[in-house]
Design goal:
Distance between the termini: 62 Å
Order of helices and strands: HHHHEHHEHHHHHHHHHHEEHHHH
Strand order of the largest sheet: 1-2
Length: 508
């Protein structure tokens, strides 16, 4: 009996291309996977178990009630002699007493105590606690996030304001703020994947990395900063790729806003604006639209930065009467503050310039593994590790996805130089900034740095590995071809399932 050979899928022309040749729909995949696991992270992560989330929550609540500029509490002269300096130097605002009460009582000693678990009874109790209770006054509370500008909290503050109008509990307000930040993050990355001319798999993996997706559905501004930096990078690459076309309304909307967000949030990431020079001929051509966009974006960002710092420096003392101060807010440790002196630290570096390289080498030797872990995913209050295999495999996955991406047309050398320059400038700014501001004078190791601080500038570094000859995705065997195209999806789903399991085991 004659056996008929199996049919091999043939290429279909027109609007219905063959699955082998059709590109992966990265934006849609990201929304599906990011939306699902983002909600999982939002629900599974116990309240205020993201670094500094309580401080960002305080700040968002203050902004939702119109307290845009944080101020100092008017301690009496007698109290100033008794109150620790960490409270005297802090700034904050007025919140309902249920806000700090919830942050203190919704869970008990979870950070660095894996033997302690989140109790569902505590969640249920705090969810039912009224925001405003009879006989419970408002309090003034300091927040380490007081220096951040209101636009960085706009999504969370708006949803919190709506929740407050329904007298929802403080814990419900926290979850609403988390949801708002997640929605903004998903929207910005989806937009990025639609417009970027190259590096879609890299952006896909970077945005779904455990650390990134852990920060996105939180009240921290880090999710917005990461998404804005990636979107700005993609938009400027798209401008360089289409250097024969004039700028459009989308460019004029994205570039000034994202640059301003980075300037107000973390100014060390602003060198990304140098990507305008990916196409210098287009920037200085007879069509001045790119040059106008570049200069106007810089003027807007610089203007907002100057105005905001003038407002914060001249905020003064709050005019409050009969509003008690909440001493239970989390602040910097007293024993560390006397050891920090940026002027003396700068003088030390000026007198011992050769020590810079020694300090850097010692820091990498001592903190290198920690940087990788806290870049890929060190969850909770940086006390919850993922399986070690993820820390080994994820960097290789990011580089492999970059190798499978193409360089921009006609800008290969300029592209590589600019990506390297931007990464070096921003990385140096992070290292120097933390050594000056967060490290004891003449210390041998830079203190306070976490790997997550390098996520916003990871894309330029990874795109250095882009090749003109992407990795082959076609084979004669159809299932293997599909596997080659979709390996980032399969890999990241496995990683995120493992991450969700780790969070569950750690906290419940």
């Amino acid at each position: 009996m004659r056996v008929k050979p199996k049919k091999i899928p043939q290429k279909i022309s027109g609007n219905n291309p063959d699955p082998i040749d059709s590109p992966v729909n990265w934006p849609r995949l990201f929304l599906l996977i990011g939306g699902f696991f983002g909600l999982v992270m939002l629900v599974l992560t116990p309240p205020f178990q993201v670094p500094d989330e309580h401080d960002h929550f305080f700040r968002a609540v203050m902004i939702s009630s119109g307290q845009f500029v944080a101020k100092s509490y008017p301690f009496s002269e007698e109290l100033k002699k008794k109150v620790p300096k960490k409270y005297l130097k802090g700034k904050g605002g007025i919140v309902p007493v249920s806000i700090p009460y919830t942050t203190r009582n919704v869970n008990h000693k979870l950070p660095f105590h894996p033997e302690n678990k989140q109790q569902f009874s505590d969640l249920k109790k705090m969810l039912a606690l009224p925001l405003h209770m009879k006989g419970m006054p408002e309090v003034f509370i300091n927040t380490s996030a007081g220096g951040y500008a209101p636009p960085l909290y706009l999504p969370a503050a708006l949803t919190i304001a709506v929740g407050k109008s329904f007298n929802l509990s403080a814990l419900w307000l926290m979850y609403l703020g988390r949801l708002a930040n997640l929605m903004v993050f998903l929207s910005l990355i989806y937009w990025t994947l639609r417009i970027t001319p190259t590096g879609k798999p890299v952006i896909f993996l970077l945005a779904l990395m455990p650390m990134t997706l852990f920060l996105a559905p939180s009240l921290s501004i880090d999710g917005l900063i990461i998404a804005s930096s990636i979107l700005l990078t993609a938009t400027l690459m798209d401008l360089a790729q289409n250097d024969q076309q004039p700028t459009n309304y989308r460019d004029w909307f994205i570039v000034p806003i994202t640059l301003t967000i980075l300037t107000l949030g973390k100014v060390v990431y602003c060198p990304l604006i140098l990507l305008f020079f990916l196409s210098p001929k287009a920037l200085f051509s007879s069509d001045r639209s790119r040059l106008f966009l570049f200069t106007s974006s810089l003027v807007l960002a610089a203007g907002c930065y100057i105005i905001w710092h003038w407002l914060t420096n001249n905020a003064g003392t709050a005019s409050v009467t009969n509003i008690p101060f909440d001493y239970t807010s989390f602040q910097a440790k007293d024993q560390l503050m006397p050891l920090l002196n940026s002027k003396k630290q700068l003088q030390f570096l000026q007198h011992h310039p050769s020590s810079i390289f020694t300090i850097l080498i010692r820091t990498l030797q001592d903190q290198g593994l920690y940087y990788i872990e806290s870049f890929i995913g060190l969850l909770g209050w940086l006390d919850t590790k993922l399986p070690f295999l993820i820390y080994i495999s994820f960097p290789f996955a990011l580089i492999a996805s970059a190798l499978d991406s193409k360089t921009l047309k006609n800008h290969v050398l300029t592209e590589k130089v600019l990506f390297a320059l931007i990464w070096i400038i921003s990385t140096s700014a992070i290292l120097i900034g933390f050594y000056l501001l967060s490290t004891p004078v003449s210390n041998a190791i830079i203190g306070g740095i976490q790997g997550r601080y390098f996520i916003p500038i990871a894309l330029p570094f990874l795109l250095l590995f882009c090749a003109d000859y992407p990795l082959p995705t076609k084979t004669n065997y159809y299932p293997l071809s599909r596997l080659n195209m979709n390996w980032p999806t399969i890999y990241v789903v496995i990683v995120l399932l493992t991450t969700a399991s780790t969070i569950w085991c750690r906290y419940y």
